[in-house]
Amino acid sequence: MQNFYRDTWAEINLDHIEANVQSLKKQLPPNTEIMAVVKANAYGHGDLEVANAALKAGATRLAVAFLDEALALRKKGVTVPILVMGAVRPSDVTIAAENHISLTAYSKEWLKQAGKYLLHHEVSLHMKLDTGMGRLGIREEEELVESLSFIDTHACFQLEGVFTHFATADEKDTAYFKGQYDRFLTMLKHFEHKGVLIHCANSATSLRFPNDVFNAVRYGISMYGLPPSLDIVDEIPFKLKEAFSLHSSIVHIKKVKKGEKISYGATYTASEDEWIGTVPIGYADGWIRRLSGSDVLVDGERVPIVGRICMDQMMIKLKEEKPLGTKVTLIGSQKDQTISVNEVAKRLETINYEVPCMISWRVPRMFLKNGSIMEVRNSLL
What we know:
Elements: E1 9-13, H1 14-27, E2 33-37, H2 39-43, H3 47-57, E3 61-64, H4 67-75, E4 82-84, H5 93-98, E5 103-105, H6 108-115, E6 123-128, H7 141-152, E7 157-163, H8 175-188, E8 197-201, H9 203-208, E9 216-219, E10 244-249, E11 252-256, E12 261-262, E13 268-269, E14 274-279, E15 295-298, E16 301-306, E17 314-318, E18 327-334, E19 337-339, H10 341-348, H11 354-358, E20 365-369, E21 372-377
Helix pairs in contact: 1-3
């Protein structure tokens, strides 16, 4: 290992990122652009490295949530088009314009306020339509018509795209999804002959309805090898390759007597003489206390976390004494055993999106390419 000095790390398989992009590209209509969604530091995987892998595999654009994320990519040398999908303060639009970053126009009022700051700049816009998500976006056709007129009469704005977001595209029941899609079609009539990028498809829509995606898709969770939901796994047309794994090591081992207690609150009592290993990962790393009692992998076998997970460490019960430095896998595979992101999410009663996002950047990321370490990113050094 290199560039970090602790025995915990995450591995990001960039070959899997590329494969997931290439697989989607094959099922989309020709000339459909893929916008790789790398917000939240690429869902906890690493924004620059994932962006480069996705672009190499055929993506042509990137999408993020906030202006800061787009600027971070620009500072790291990324030159392809980037869309900020979230709200940007009108007073910051010149910064976006200077860095050739596209912004989301989500109301007539935002356009009016943003226009006041664009005295000597032009900024590219993607208009967001709220077809039923209830988040950002123009909901009424009257406001849409007025907003388009405002853009047409103000040279500081360049309309580049239009989009919406589906609330239930990852659910079996498609009634609400179809209602949103039909509403989007109705509103799209105002964009005829404008020659803009039209994107409504997130991962779920891209995978399930590839012929209804217009000329661009936004590829998010499934680019990382994770299904948008477990409800539609059987509808995914190719095998997703999970890119994120999480590992640590045994740094201390001891044999405790029957009846002895482990960790805060003394909630765990040894039922017999037991081998207990200490592993240097805890809730400050994102391996939260609610995961106490779940399994990890050691030498290809499942072993339980015992006692409460601490801020920086946790303890595991071993069947036998293990050498110091023995690898512990929290997410990933050893021999014929696998602990997936979905398994961890189920344990936490949440969605798989949340799991890699919650692993803090105190945990170094090791980027793998062709089976070898390509790069290590340690945010602390």
